[in-house]
Design brief:
295 residues; alpha+beta; six-stranded antiparallel sheet; 6 helices; 6 strands; 14% strand; globular
């Protein structure tokens, strides 16, 4: 079980809800190595109060905290930290963060798959590459081992079920939707109940990121899609659809008083890199990414 653990309060079976990873920086006043997540909102060092700048040299990522839900004992939701005062909480947290995971052939394939078919010449693999992507050059690098393994497991189960093609497509849609928030792009905001904390329009890797429980997030997204389909099916009045690629300057073929709603979504030229933003989903779902070679 990728997210299985033990409750440090009652020793009951528990499930990891999330693990927070924090970039660390060297305080320029007291010289302590400080996880950014341990600082206050003003990014002040917890040891001396000196402000930590995220422009300083990064010292490496540290597993900082985990949230767990007890399943059969006290049934409480609790948080434990890497430096927890509770010895048992600290011991179990170390296990939460360092779970040994068996790597599948599909996982190894993504470990060997360069971002955007990059040829390895230089660090930049695309227009969205930034200095904070240092060390990230493959599809797998955008994920923790646990979360990418869970994503690939769900993909495998979807393809193995005996449901029709339409059901499989809807399930793959749910999976594609959660891939960004299941990656290292998921920003950590304590107390936030909004599920997707990924910065839009970029492939930003924040200095403090949250490893979500992929199975729980997938089931939640599946329920949302089912509710949406049900709502649409209750409101739609016809299944007759006209798809046209003609110029919008001439709408004479559309009867008067036949339009209930107009939705427009114009492209943004080169300002938004749609292809690069979709590359993680396309690669993981096994879609054709040959368009990259024609760019």
């Amino acid at each position: 079980d990728l997210y299985g653990t033990r409750c440090h309060l009652c020793e009951g079976s528990a499930e990891i809800q999330s693990v927070v990873y924090s970039q660390t920086y060297r305080c320029l006043k007291c010289f302590n190595l400080v996880p950014l997540a341990s600082c206050d909102k003003e990014k002040r060092c917890p040891h001396c109060g000196e402000k930590i700048s995220t422009r300083q040299e990064r010292q490496g990522v540290l597993p900082w905290a985990s949230e767990i839900r007890c399943l059969d004992g006290c049934k409480k939701v609790s948080t434990r930290h890497h430096d927890d005062d509770n010895d048992k909480a600290r011991e179990y947290f170390a296990l939460d963060a360092s779970r040994s995971i068996q790597i599948s052939p599909e996982f190894r394939e993504l470990q060997d798959r360069p971002m955007l078919h990059h040829d390895g010449e230089g660090e930049r693999w695309g227009l969205l590459w930034r200095p904070y992507h240092e060390g990230i050059s493959t599809i797998a690098d955008f994920f923790t081992q646990r979360n990418l393994s869970a994503i690939l497991d769900i993909r495998s189960q979807i393809k193995a079920i005996g449901a029709g093609e339409e059901i499989q497509r809807l399930l793959l849609l749910a999976l594609a939707n959660i891939i960004p928030s299941a990656s290292k792009q998921q920003r950590y905001y304590p107390g936030s109940t909004f599920p997707n904390m990924v910065m839009p329009g970029v492939l930003y890797i924040p200095p403090v990121n949250e490893e979500i429980n992929v199975y729980r997030r997938f089931l939640s997204k599946r329920r949302t899609i089912i509710r949406g389909i049900k709502s649409i099916s209750e409101q739609i009045r016809t299944t007759k659809v006209c798809i046209s690629t003609q110029s919008a300057s001439d709408l004479s073929m559309i009867p008067d008083d036949s339009i209930d709603y107009v939705f427009t979504d114009p492209p943004y030229s080169g300002r938004i890199q749609y292809g690069e933003l979709n590359h993680l989903q396309e690669a993981i779902l096994g879609l054709d990414t040959s368009w990259i070679d024609e760019e």
